[in-house]
Write a structure and sequence with these properties.
One of its GO terms (biological process) is carbohydrate metabolic process. Pfam families: Bac_rhamnosid_C (PF17390). This is Alpha-L-rhamnosidase C-terminal domain-containing protein. GO terms for molecular function: catalytic activity. The chain has 230 residues and is of the alpha+beta class. It has two domains: 107 residues, no CATH class; 104 residues, Maltose phosphorylase, domain 3. Helix content is 21%, strand content 33%. It has five helices and 13 strands. The strands form three sheets. Strands 5, 6, 7, 8, 9, 10, 11, 12 and 13 form a nine-stranded mixed sheet that branches. It has a two-stranded antiparallel sheet with strand order 1-2. A hairpin with a 2-residue loop joins strand 8 and strand 9. Helix 2 runs parallel beside helix 5. The longest helix is centred in the N-terminal third of the chain and has 13 residues.
C-alpha cells in the first residue's frame, strides 16, 4: 500500500518489491497477516505494486502462479477467481479466522480477487484514465515476456482501446480514444540507453518528446493513432 499511495521513494519501492518475493510459494504469495493463507484480493495489490516498481516479469510470474494455478485447478471452477486458499493447495481459507472451519464459506466467484483484470489493462496494455471519464488519459505499456497485448474500456465519453505487438525491430502500438481528449503516450526504449526512432501516424517525431528512465513520452490528442517504435 505504501507503494500504491506514493509515500515511498524509488529506492524504497525497489526494495519493497524485492522483499515481497520472500512470501511467494509455488502457488502464490502467502499473506503475512494470515499465515499459511493465500489471499487473491491482497495479491491484487501486490501485482500493482510490482508494476509501479517496473517489474512486469514479477507480476506475470505471480499471476501465473496464483490465478493460473486456480484457473487450471480441476477442483475449482476453472472459469472464475477464488477468494483465497491455503498454501497446501486446499480451500480452507480463513478456516480458523472467522470462517468456522467450513470450506463451503469460501467464495469461488469473488470479484474482489479479480485484480489482474484492471492491472493488465492499465500496466501491460498500459491504458488508463488520468481524470474523470478519461478527459485526460495515458498509455504506458510494460511488456514483460509477452509478445502482444490488447485491451480497453468504455466511459460516457466513448471507447478507449489500445494494443501493441512486438516485432524483430521494435514494436507497434495502436490506440483509439475519444476525440476531445488528450493524453501522454510513454513508449519504452527498444534498446536500453538508446533513444528510439518514433513515428506516429507516419510522421517521424523529432520534437516534443520527453526522455526519462528508458522511455519517451509524447502528448497526443484524441482519435485513432498508430505509433511505430524502432
Amino acid at each position: 500500500m505504501a507503494i500504491m499511495f506514493g509515500v515511498v521513494n524509488e529506492e524504497r519501492i525497489a526494495s519493497i518489491s524485492e522483499k515481497l518475493l520472500k512470501n511467494w510459494t509455488p502457488i502464490g504469495a502467502v499473506a503475512p497477516e494470515l499465515p499459511d493463507n493465500i489471499a487473491s484480493f491482497i495479491s491484487s495489490f501486490e501485482i500493482q505494486s510490482h508494476f509501479i516498481a517496473h517489474e512486469p516479469a514479477r507480476v506475470l510470474e505471480l499471476i501465473r502462479r496464483s490465478w493460473g494455478w486456480y484457473i487450471n485447478n480441476p477442483n475449482g471452477t476453472e472459469s472464475t477467481v477464488v477468494e483465497g486458499y491455503l498454501q497446501n493447495g486446499t480451500f480452507g481459507y480463513r478456516m480458523d479466522r472467522g470462517y468456522g472451519y467450513d470450506p463451503s464459506y469460501v467464495s469461488h466467484a469473488h470479484g474482489w480477487s479479480s485484480g489482474p483484470t484492471s492491472a493488465l489493462t492499465e500496466y501491460v496494455v498500459g491504458l488508463s484514465v488520468v481524470s474523470p471519464l478519461g478527459l485526460t488519459w495515458k498509455i504506458a505499456p510494460q511488456f514483460g515476456d509477452l509478445e502482444f497485448a490488447e485491451g480497453g474500456f468504455v466511459t460516457s465519453l466513448g471507447k478507449f482501446e489500445a494494443s501493441w505487438v512486438l516485432n524483430s525491430s521494435g514494436y507497434v502500438l495502436t490506440f483509439s480514444v475519444p476525440k476531445g481528449t488528450v493524453g501522454d503516450v510513454t513508449l519504452p526504449y527498444v534498446t536500453a540507453s538508446k533513444k528510439p526512432s518514433i513515428t506516429i501516424d507516419g510522421d517521424q517525431l523529432t520534437r516534443g518528446v520527453a526522455y526519462s528512465d528508458g522511455t519517451a513520452t509524447v502528448k497526443v490528442t484524441g482519435g485513432s493513432h498508430k505509433a511505430v517504435v524502432r
